[in-house]
Write a structure and sequence with these properties.
Length: 212
């Protein structure tokens, strides 16, 4: 049964509309919680006041725990109701990577219309490409063609004001703090419209190319 259904069952118990849960749901979770804490059945019995035989039968799907038994488990094991019904997320194989970029220490990549600063350049095989950009362009005539690349892009204006031009929508005015998420295979271009060149933060999904 899905975790959504497990949580629904938990809510039904909490509201008193259901007196017991299917043993397959709670028995497996009880064993997981007990083993994760290196507790014996005797330890759990002492903590909850439930007999060892009762706990063993719950874990082995031999009985359906009553609402009272569920309450004793929650209180004795010091967990909340969702923890009892929702399996913990599996640990990924992440290596815990991180890449700090100090202010102004990104990799510069100037173009005729943008002055990019690539961020987090030390990490390889990233799923996202973050960069900060000073928008030098002041008119669409500064571009010889639409900017486009595979994937999707999140953009936030850090300083100043811009107009975001796209081939499928009317030009969009954006100012400091505004953000947008869009399909970057759609032709697009940024133009500064305020007294100073605008600065934006962009994060692109890594596909076959980047907006450089």
């Amino acid at each position: 049964m899905s975790s959504s259904n497990d949580q629904d069952a938990a809510l039904q118990i909490a509201s008193g509309r259901k007196a017991f849960v299917e043993p397959l749901q709670l028995g497996t979770r009880l064993r997981e919680i007990r083993l994760a804490n290196q507790w014996t059945l005797a330890d759990v019995s002492e903590r909850t006041g439930l007999a060892r035989s009762t706990l063993s039968k719950i874990e082995n799907d031999q009985i359906s725990p009553t609402f009272t038994a569920v309450q004793k488990l929650i209180n004795g094991l010091n967990i909340d109701l969702p923890q009892l019904f929702t399996p913990p997320r599996q640990h990924s194989n992440t290596l815990g990577r991180r890449d700090l970029t100090r202010h102004g220490q990104g990799q510069p990549h100037p173009t005729p219309t943008y002055e990019h600063e690539l961020i987090s350049c030390e990490l390889t095989q990233k799923r996202m490409i973050p960069f900060k950009t000073v928008v030098r362009a002041r008119s669409m005539t500064d571009f010889s063609e639409w900017v486009r690349h595979d994937g999707e892009e999140f953009l936030m204006v850090l300083e100043g004001e811009i107009q975001l031009f796209t081939e499928l929508y009317e030009p969009l005015a954006m100012s400091q703090g505004d953000s947008i998420y869009f399909d970057s295979s759609m032709g697009h271009a940024l133009v500064s419209v305020g007294p100073q060149d605008a600065v934006v933060l962009s994060v692109c999904t890594r596909e076959n190319g980047t907006r450089l």
